[in-house]
Amino acid sequence: MAKRTLEDILTGEDESGLLADLKALPVAASSEAQRVFQTFEEINAFIDRNGYIPGTLRIGLKSGTSERMLQLALNGIKGNESMVSLLAPVDRHGLLDHIVPEAPVPASLESIIDSGDELLSTSADDIFTFRSTPQPKAKPERKAERRPCKDFEVYKPLFDACAEDLKDLRRKTIEFKNEQEIKAGEFFILSGAMLYVAEVNDPHLRNGKPNARLRLIFDNGTEGDNLLRSLSAELYKDGPAGRGRRVTAGDDGPLFTGREDVEHRPSQAYAAAHDAQPSERDTVTGEIYVLKSLSTNPQVTALEGQLFKIGFTTGSIEDRIFSAKDDPTFLLAPVKPVKSYRVVNMSTVKMENLLHRFFGDARLDIEITDRFGRACKPREWFLVPIDVVGRAIEMLIDGSIVNHHYDREAGQILPNTRAS
User: Domain check: are 265 and 231 in the same one?
Assistant: First the structure.
């Protein structure tokens, strides 16, 4: 006698009634059925966590190994009618194509009435009585989708610096509690990925509540344009504990206090002129450079002597600007170094970020279209006199910059009115 399979046992006659309760369960008692059920639950959990079916909605991105395995498992389940029947009770995402037998086509209206349908014969049934029209639910203007970030090289150093700060305990992650925490320049952890709020645009009221359109940069090189309230909703429900995480602001103290060498002797943190030679005990971490554009674009030439790019590199400036004419961040034109400062014993990324923040009101607002027709907004060009940049770097080193601000109209660094 041939060995009976699981399907034979479940679909055959149960003379003793032993399987009566078992057939009502979504999972059979066998290890094979348990494995199928567990795999299907992993697929459901993936969709709960990421919001899409494995192997779909990954425009321009490659699926991970685990996602690919779940996609193959789902395809195998959908191609097996016995598995479809077994898993139907737990198919909460409607993933399976259930086979529904076609009902016979009625020959006439009389045959429908004579069929004895309880719905048609119940005198108390009032489902056809019109009462009210449901209020339409608010629909989003458009669905935010992630896409490759065209200028991720600008933001990657920020992620690297944040990760380093977390590792060295200069920052920490805390539970997300309030949508008012979502501001430009803040980092968050969502579904295990780090994201950076690069821009907060178009503040408005939606359904009577404040909202805005965000530009979010993710650590995997993608970006999205989620609404503020949509991001807060995702952070509230994220993770096993029910909340996403916010990364606290870094402590700028070490930028000014320097470090101690192996002999525990203080070594001053500073930015020196490019030709200055640091001592053997110092650590050169990179260079802050100031560039002028050689563009022939009338919008740029009209700003000659006022427009400069402030950036950093951990390599040589020559290598960094070699392909400037093909790079939208350099205005698609050659550039000329004006000044450079060797950064010693401090974070080059942090120093650049502080300078960008300090001159934020003087940032150039311009949009460049690259050779592929894609629009790009360079973020490192500022309308600042060249001598003011050098002064700002000096004030960063001695710490006095915290009591000053840059006045765009006057073109000067002025004391804060509330400074003591």
Answer: no
Q: Return d(Cα 223, Cα 196) in angstroms, integer.
A: 9
Q: Are residues 234 and 257 in the same domain?
A: no
pLDDT of the residue at 18? 47
Instruction: Sort strands 193-206 and 270-273 into parallel, antiparallel or unpaired.
Output: unpaired
State phi, psi for 82 to the nearest 5 degrees. -65, -35
Encode pLDDT of 367-393 as tens digits. 888 778 888 888 899 999 999 998 998
pLDDT digits (tens, 9 = 90+) for 77-130: 887 888 888 888 888 888 886 444 445 666 666 665 566 555 555 555 555 565
Q: Which residues of 81-118 are buried (b: 16+ CB within 10 A; e: fewer)?
A: eebbebbeeebeeebbeeeeeeeeeeeeeeeeeeeeee
Domain check: are 223 and 189 in the same one?
A: yes
Give the pLDDT mean for 12-31.
51
Helix (H/G/I), strand (E/B), else coil: 20:
helix
Report the distance separating Cα 117 and Cα 225, nearest Å. 52
Q: Are residues 263 and 410 in the same domain?
A: yes
Say whether pLDDT at 217 is over 80.
yes
Residues ≥6 apart with Cβ < 8 Å to 269: 254, 255, 256, 257, 258, 259, 344, 345, 346, 397
Single pTM value for the model = 0.38
Domain count, the chain: 3
CB 230, CB 160: distance < 8 Å: no
Contacts for 256 with CB less than 8 Å, ≥ 6 apart: 269, 396, 397, 398, 399
Question: Locate tokens 């790019």: which residue?
Answer: 309
Residue-by-residue DSSP string for 167-206: HTTSS-EEE---GGG--TT-EEEETTEEEEEEEEEEEEEE
Q: In this structure, is residue 101 part of a structural domain?
A: no
Where among 90, 107, 132 does a domain terminate?
90
